[in-house]
Amino acid sequence: MRLQCEVEVRSRLLPTCGLRGRAKGAHALLSLGRQPDRPPGRGGPSAGHSVYLMVCTARDRAGARYKLKENIEQFFTKFVEEGKATVRLKEPAVDVCLSKANASNLKSFLAAVRLAHRGTDVEALPLSVLVPAKTSEVEKPKTKMIITSRRDYPLTKNFPYSLEHLQASYCKLARVDMRMLCLKKLRKLDLSHNHIKKLPETIGDLVSLQELNLHNNHLETFCVALCNSTLQKSLQFLDLSQNKIKALPVQFCQLQELVHLKLDDNELIRLPFKMGQLSLLRFLSAARNKLPFLPSDFRNLSLEKLDLFGNPFEQPNPLVPSIQLKIPLTLLESAARATVNYRIPYGRHLLPSHLCEDLEVAKTCQCGNACLSCFIQTTVTMNLHYVAHTVVLVDNMGGTEAPIVCYFCSLTCYSQFLDRYLQSNR
């Protein structure tokens, strides 16, 4: 039986080798095997076989061997579900500390070690041959792979399961390789400069993914399923620049761990409606798109750097509003406003899904109340320094202002806004 993990052997006889002073474990291969207690001599047979634990590392591939029968003082298995355990030996007086092991394999390995300690018949144990480990078995697992040409792309071999950083750029990939989606430890995935047109929903199964770079591909959409996946809790960096995306879904703003978002050189005609929900966002660039104005929620952002250069922003005109107000309000509108304003719990187990979706994208009037399909809409000028410390000029004229949408739930609210606007522009 063999087990690959990180191992540290600590002597209990040395006072400086306590738990606080121990170094990080080295990747190792552990083997359970039998060998003669005493080699057979010319005068007679050997004294029998005993079970040994052999620990092989990159520095010591021949391995250190420890006899197990009646030689274990204690097992420490409180964190075995996390792939950690310690075997305390009597002779020599050492602790064999195991970590970063597969939990299931570790349990099986420890069970066999217990049987060996009790003196179970060696024929009943799943033993390995005690031979020096191969270099590939004791080298630290590969965590980073960078591929920058189609020629170097692996077509027949799988990616190492231990990868944390994978870059596959300039490989002419038309789709995301499904083998990548099995890399559960992946934290950074760079697929820039390819020909990818669509993202598979299963990218959301990469539970550790923090950085996703899709710069310079052929993407036209960013699917809702990714916004509802585990990426909500992990994704911090997203580069969708230089694609063909026209709009991002409303659910995009559920990726609330985002810190860095790049949307440059797309065909965006609007930014996500609930942009202000991205409370951790600090770096946003959406230069050279087709944005006519910014969403109302944009004013809730708190950025360090903002770049919106090269968008065809419209000239705001608060005196020419778009009125979509029905008087009196419909029963549906009144009920929806009350649900949002009074924070009444709702869900798809209580309401049809389309009503839930409407409630989730409710607009907010400047008075703080909600409105859904009945509202007055206009645009006003906002200085982008209001939401960002550093602002790249919006145009070649040195401007840092852009139009932002405002919503009003009633004629009263719009009239009050209009009075303030006219007084400030006298």
Tell me briefly what this model is:
This protein has 426 residues and is an alpha/beta fold.
What can you see in these coordinates?
InterPro entries: Leu-rich_rpt (IPR001611), Leu-rich_rpt_typical-subtyp (IPR003591), LRR_dom_sf (IPR032675), LRR_domain-containing (IPR050216), PIF1/LRR1_PH (IPR057437). One of its GO terms (cellular component) is cytoplasm. By secondary structure, the protein is an alpha/beta fold. It folds into three domains: 1-8 and 67-132, no CATH class; 144-290, Ribonuclease Inhibitor (Leucine-rich repeat, LRR (right-handed beta-alpha superhelix), Alpha-Beta Horseshoe); 322-383 and 401-424, no CATH class. The chain is 14% helix and 25% strand. The chain is built from seven helices and 21 strands. The chain has helices at 103-117, 135-138, 224-227, 231-234, 331-341, 353-360, 411-424, and strands at 2-11, 26-36, 49-57, 64-67, 72-76, 85-89, 94-99, 144-147, 165-168, 188-190, 211-213, 237-239, 260-262, 283-285, 303-307, 322-324, 363-364, 370-371, 375-383, 388-392, 401-408. Strands 8-9-10-11-12-13-14-15-20 form a nine-stranded parallel beta sheet, with no helix packed on it. The chain has a seven-stranded antiparallel beta sheet with strand order 4-3-2-1-7-6-5. A hairpin with an 8-residue loop joins strand 5 and strand 6 (85-89).
